[in-house]
Amino acid sequence: MKIYKYHSINIFLLHSLRNNTNWYSRLDQLNDPYECFFIDKTNTQVFSNLRSSLYACCFSKNMNEILMWSHYADNHRGVCLEWEIDEEQLKGQLFEMKYSNEFTTIDEIKVSKSGHVDISIDTNGKFIVSKFQPWSYEEELRTYLSLESNKIGESRNYLGKLTAIYFGKNSINDDIDLVKFNSTHFQNLKYYKADLDTNTMKIDKIETLN
Fold first, then answer.
1. What is the pTM of this model?
2. In the predicted model, is pLDDT for residue 210 greater than 90?
3. How many distinct helices (H) and strands (E) make up the chain?
């Protein structure tokens, strides 16, 4: 399975490439103030504390969405990274986000036989994999860390093998050379220039840069 991440060409991208790591952001650092939104009727801080401990790393199911290139890849001046991952190995760790204008209401705290809070992404924990409908163009895949920390984020190793880097329509040669220079340690890595396919009105690779 392939997953994708849109990125500006900056020091953070270069750090990611050099160290084979992705950045996990605390939820309040993301661009949606309604991340993991729910209505809490339990009169406790249990679920609020859970949400506060979550750090997310966000990916997409595709590299061809024009808006994603505009919003997350510096107006098509940036890149989209492609990984090949083992879907079975990441089962229960990589979540496909669901889009709906309905939200989770939590009425009670359920406790398992082991004494831990019982949370299921199909019921009382649905908010963990839910976003409001306007975000559906992102086709987001997401993985989480749970940390007891005040840090705004943390780096962790790539989930799979980096297989390709797509450069946006407006990327410049100096930036392309910089990214290629900082990714020479990846075996069999492919580089592509991306542009609009007028037949599908989607972004696609149009030129191999290797």
1. 0.94
2. no
3. 4, 14
